[in-house]
Structures are given as C-alpha cells and as structure tokens.
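Researcher: Quick test of sequence recovery. Tokens follow.
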C-alpha cells in the first residue's frame, strides 16, 4: 500500500538507492478498482478530490486525477507522472477504501514500489 507513513519502496526510490535508468520522481500508476455501483465510484472520486483539497494540494498537484478513466462501475488508472507521494497515498487509499475489487500498483522503472488493494479499512 502507498502510505503517508514510510514505505521501503518509496523511501528507497526517492532516496536515490535505485539506479539512474529512470528519473526518480516519475512514478507509473496502473490498475483498476471496481465499485458496487456507479454512485459508489463517483463518491470515491469526489472523496479523493476532497482529500487533496484538505491537504492544500495545488491545482497542478491535483490535475493528475483528471487522467482517471471510468466505465460503468470500473475506475482505470494508467498514469505516468511526477506526483507528490503523500498526495498519491491519500488519493489511492481513499479510492481503495470503498472499492470491492482491484488494486493500483506504483512502479518506478521496473520496480514495484507499492500496491494499493481494494477494500482498505485501516
């Protein structure tokens, strides 16, 4: 899971412990979440946006959420971006919380640095 606490994958990636094949601050997020209803999906997205507002994220920091694709009750994430890891943690933890299926993976180059499965309740 991506966490606002420390994660070994994130800490290693941003401390420069990975080789220099990729820029260290560009993270690839990929995966899907499925929700019980379309309304649940829309509420999850609204809640994730609200988390960014609470965190005082700038408009540029929040713009990456516009890259999410929805179809029916499925949210698809396929994004390569420079994002604040704490903002990403807040967004994906919120989206995962009410999802009934799926996960989003965070990768730096070929290395998985985090995985946020559905149904998070911690």
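Model:
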């Amino acid at each position: 899971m991506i966490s606002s606490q420390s994660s070994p994958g994130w800490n290693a990636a941003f401390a420069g412990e990975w080789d220099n094949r990729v820029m260290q601050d560009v993270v690839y997020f990929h995966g899907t979440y499925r929700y019980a209803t379309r309304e649940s999906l829309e509420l999850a997205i609204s809640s994730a946006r609200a988390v960014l507002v609470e965190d005082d994220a700038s408009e540029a920091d929040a713009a990456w959420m516009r890259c999410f694709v929805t179809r029916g009750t499925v949210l698809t994430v396929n994004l390569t971006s420079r994002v604040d890891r704490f903002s990403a943690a807040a967004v994906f933890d919120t989206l995962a919380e009410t999802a009934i299926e799926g996960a989003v993976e965070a990768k730096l180059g070929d290395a998985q640095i985090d995985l946020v499965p559905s149904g998070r309740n911690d």
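The first strand starts at residue 27 and ends at 34.
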